[in-house]
Amino acid sequence: MLERLPLPDADVRLDPAWLAPGEASGLFDALIDALPWENHVVRLFGREHASPRLSCWIGDAGARYRYSGVSREPRPWTAQLIALRGRLRESLGVDFDSVLANLYRDGRDAMGWHADDERELGPAPVIASVSLGATRRFVLRHRDGAPRLALDLPAGSLLLMQGATQANYRHALPRTARPVGPRINLTFRRIVGS
Ligand SMILES: O=C(O)CCC(=O)C(=O)O
Ligand SMILES: [Fe+2]
Fold it and tell me: Is the dihedral of CA 36, 110, 183, 140 positive or negative?
């Protein structure tokens, strides 16, 4: 069951057990082999850095997307991701056209503070985030500085961010010194007007 979290100026919902444990681990094993994981290079203050994770952008042929300032053509859907997209349509009534897959190999891999507020996603993006593998902490912070909220995202969890969430909050997946195994996160998105 998706439960709405007590965050003002946002609409964030969490189901910690959206997938059964066996389904989540089967999907993790399938995706780690099936997806063409890449180490994207990001430009920061004029310098190029390998981003601290592997990723892969998948979507319908028309779902062009700008990411780190570069317009990307998506990779084609895999059978597992088509099935998962269908499950999300049933659960949420939302038809996603693309998914950004991230692979955090260990606790050194992370994602910095950002909002998924690219123009392509429209004024009130709906983002469905499915986590597989190791549990990692996810943090949200209001653009005013507070409030902030930390959540653990276990394997099989579904986190939904919609409404004014991206306009008013940023989120991140911090590094951790704790020994943690690999984690896959899938953020399903819908490109408005594509
Ligand atoms: O790994 C996560 O849980 C967050 C990923 C994320 O924020 C993104 O892909 O935009
Ligand atoms: Fe994000």
Answer: negative
Tell me the whole-structure pTM to 2 decimals.
Answer: 0.95
Whether residue 173 has its Cβ less than 6 Å from ligand 1: yes
Cα separation of 160 and 141, whole Å? Answer: 16
Q: Which CATH superfamily is domain 3-189 in?
A: Alpha-ketoglutarate-dependent dioxygenase AlkB-like (2.60.120.590)
User: What are the residues facing 148 on neighbouring strands?
Assistant: 141
Tell me the percentage of the chain whose pLDDT exceeds 90. 84
**Could you read off the pLDDT of 127-143 as tens digits, one per residue?**
999 999 999 999 999 99
Mutation test residue for ligand 1: of 157, 171, 186, 188, the one with most atoms within 8 Å of CB: 171
CA of 164 to the centre of ligand 2 (A): 14
Report the sign of the C-alpha dihedral through residues 53, 123, 87, 72, in that order: negative
